[in-house]
Amino acid sequence: MSTDRYQSPLSERYASKEMQYIFSPDMKFRTWRKLWIALAETEKELGLNITEEQIAELKVHAEDINYDVAIAREKEVRHDVMSHVYAYGVQCPTAKGIIHLGATSCYVGDNTDVIVMTEALKLVRKKLVNVISELSKFADKYKDLPTLAFTHFQPAQPTTVGKRATLWMQEFYLDLEDLEYVLSTMKLLGSKGTTGTQASFLELFDGDQETIDKIDPMIAAKMGFAECYPVSGQTYSRKVDTRVLNVLAGIAASATKMSNDIRLLQHLKEVEEPFEKSQIGSSAMAYKRNPMRSERIASLSRYVIVDALNPAITSATQWFERTLDDSANKRLSVPEGFLAIDGILDLCLNVVDGLVVYPKVIEKRLRSELPFMATENIMMDAVKAGGDRQELHERIRTLSMEAGRNVKVEGKENNLLELIAADPAFNMTLEDLQKTMDPSKYVGRAKEQVEAYLAKVIHPLLEERKALLGMKAEINV
């Protein structure tokens, strides 16, 4: 580790080795060489004077990048692609004359960018499916545990712990839909030349339009893609980068929503993220158990959401067939967006897998608010016993205000049931009233909704993607 220069925390602290490899120089330049091989094979198969010996030589050196030669050459010529063409040619003297034949720099640069983003999306997809899987287990386990629900972060009708988890799950499900759609639309640039017209291939193939039409489909097939974009300038449309990073921003928003809820629940002491035996919560306050992983999720997610602006602005400001003001921005915004979302999903998986629930605290808070929520049922029972609804409504309103004042001003326990029992208008004993205090009576169809959602939506989704399941996340710090 170098200690005398800046190190990206995305690499040093947050992103996995798998995602870091996808955006590594090895992945990039090995893909360049695979593309050069695919181009040479295609051109040979379509009739150009390229030999099997030349292609075999290219394949021998497809993996062993001679970085020292390429770096030295780039200092001379100030062009990364031509430096690597030169370095590859040094290793492949027989084939050096046909490397990059008819292509422009974007042939390797842009096609590699698409390939790299596609591989990165596949890894994100795998981690997202595993987060959904862990949430499904949590939701099922706590589907019938009543808890106080909040609207505006004020007490509202009860729900269940599991039902709340389905809300988090559904956000990620929507993200998965978006991701899989974008992944299904990824296409290569192909080899279209300096302005996208394939003019160089008209020269190479003596104007044979039918043969030239075969080039892009053949290259796509060799690189594992269904097709290439049908038209382009020199580059693939930068709108593609926008679509991809918008997917990442969507995942980041969902992760923030979940992590913020967990942070609030941890403040309420109802649910806690994992806290390891030797973990220190605060340098000053030794008793603290801060939700640092959920906070990190929110922190990194904010970066990803803002980062999605980069490709949108870049796409909007490309001039005609190509300008180079995209290059430096893409080198930062795309890899770092993926590295950050990779770290976010690892954290989500780690947190959900280890969430700790405190039923007694949950029950205590719910019961402290339940008398207010039970007032409609109490009023209906009193009406059935012969009471006047309008009079009872006014009595309950008055008694509720008094009980609320006792809680908030006097700091006392909620005594609404005692107040109602003492009011002859209701003709109900405290014992009668306490029978209405079963929290499960007030959660509506929360349990049934969880069961239906898991059975009809999530379990089929996971069954279709079962080959992706089984991940365990390791976080570095």
Q: Low-confidence parts, pLDDT < 50 over ≥5 residues?
A: none
Question: Helix fraction?
Answer: 55-70%
Q: Tally the helices.
A: 21
Instruction: Report the mean per-residue pLDDT as an integer.
Output: 93
Q: What about the largest sheet?
A: 2 strands, antiparallel
Strand % is under 5%
Q: Give the SSE string.
A: HHHHHHHEEEEHHHHHEHHHEHHHHHH
Strand order, sheet with most strands: 1-4
Distance between the termini: 16 Å
Instruction: Look at the helices and sheets and give the structural class.
Output: mainly alpha
- Total strands: the figure is 6
Radius of gyration: 31 Å
The gross shape turns out to be elongated
Topology:
Elements: H1 9-14, H2 17-22, H3 25-45, H4 52-60, H5 67-77, H6 80-91, H7 105-141, E1 146-147, E2 150-151, E3 154-155, E4 159-160, H8 161-184, H9 199-204, H10 209-212, H11 215-222, H12 239-267, E5 271-272, H13 292-307, H14 309-316, H15 327-353, E6 356-357, H16 359-373, H17 375-384, H18 389-408, H19 416-421, H20 430-434, H21 446-464
Antiparallel strand pairs: 1-4, 2-3, 5-6
Helix pairs in contact: 3-7, 3-11, 5-6, 7-8, 7-15, 7-21, 8-12, 8-21, 12-13, 12-14, 12-15, 13-15, 17-18
